[in-house]
Amino acid sequence: xxxxxxxxxxxxxxxxxxxxxxxxxxxxxxxxxxxxxxxxxxxxxxxxxxxxxxxxxxxxxxxxxxxxxxxxxxxxxxxxxxxxxxxxxxxxxxxxxxxxxxxxxxxxxxxxxxxxxxxxxxxxxxxxxxxxxxxxxxxxxxxxxxxxxxxxxxxxxxxxxxxxxxxxxxxxxxxxxxxxxxxxxxxxxxxxxxxxxxxxxxxxxxxxxxxxxxxxxxxxxxxxxxxxxxxxxxxxxxxxxxxxxx
Length: 246
Prior knowledge:
By secondary structure, this protein is mostly helical. It has 12 helices and no strands. The chain has one domain. The chain crosses the membrane at residues 16-37, 61-82, 103-131, 143-164, 171-189, 219-237.
């Protein structure tokens, strides 16, 4: 398994996917820090929120609603495309590895990419606060802890996009479905009763939990997220083992 993961990591480095995982959150951080500095002494002056909270909101504003699920969709679709083109699956499966090992290795790499994306956003926001001299103690629980919880909340999205990307050889199918699933998330998140049934709202709820009364369902949401991840990935593994690779 170690050799398989090493080989997958080598493919990843050559593909440019790491740049996508890193540059998107860096763009958000730069934009958020710019907004914070621009309105620091005007719009944000006299706010009851701390400067760290304001900076956090400026950097995270667009991330959980649209960019995070889209980045997950693109990264996993590209990860699958590496094998879907030029007979990659046949070549890979000629090595002394099982389909289960290949599946788990790909899943680990997918999760690592998503974690890297979230870590850069959280770490970049923290660095932005230090550079701009945000007043008060840095809220590590908000900046780092919330990012870790957001990964748990995003597990169903990862699972669904993973199964779709490795099920269909044409990259356009998972990309189109991923965009279609992400688009109504912001509207579903505003529903008091139905949001819990739509996993694309989970990252939104996690990142903006302090302003949502519904977060009394937080433990239920995370439990559902983990359960859905296990069920979907188990189904995907069974289908992957029985599929005729071409």
